[in-house]
Amino acid sequence: MPSETPKLPPPPAQPTLPDGGEGTVIAERQSSKVEPPRLYQVVMLNDDFTPMEFVVMVLQQFFHRDLETATHIMLKIHHEGRGVCGVYTKDVAATKVEMVLAAARRAGHPLQCIMEAA
């Protein structure tokens, strides 16, 4: 009996490269649209015990407000029960809330500060 060698499939055809076989790869740039991060407003709530001067000092120290703007926000908090101190990304807003609450606790004031989606 004659032995037959098994037939192997033909090797795959090499694709014709547009650059003449140099092997250069050209990648197309795809622009990806990234949504901006959600913003949160830091809000101080009114109480009948925290001195107005302390609120103004907190607005100047932690929110970098000038005296006139800090006084305006403090009066808004006093008359309307709440006032927006600033609008920030989630991490920054949470940090500012914690800093305000810590300062109020250290000073013995019941000042409340929260963050809300803007």
From TrEMBL:
Instruction: Enumerate the Gene Ontology biological process terms.
Output: proteolysis
The Adaptor protein ClpS core domain sits at: 36-113
Q: Name one GO molecular function term.
A: peptidase activity
Q: Which residues form the signal peptide?
A: none
Q: Where is this region: Disordered?
A: 1-23
Coiled-coil region list: none
Give the top-rank taxon of the lineage listed in the UniProt record for this protein.
Bacteria
Keyword field: Hydrolase, Protease
Family according to the record? Belongs to the ClpS family.
Quote the function comment for this protein. Involved in the modulation of the specificity of the ClpAP-mediated ATP-dependent protein degradation.
The molecule here is called ATP-dependent Clp protease adapter protein ClpS
Originating species: Caldimonas mangrovi
Q: What's the gene?
A: clpS
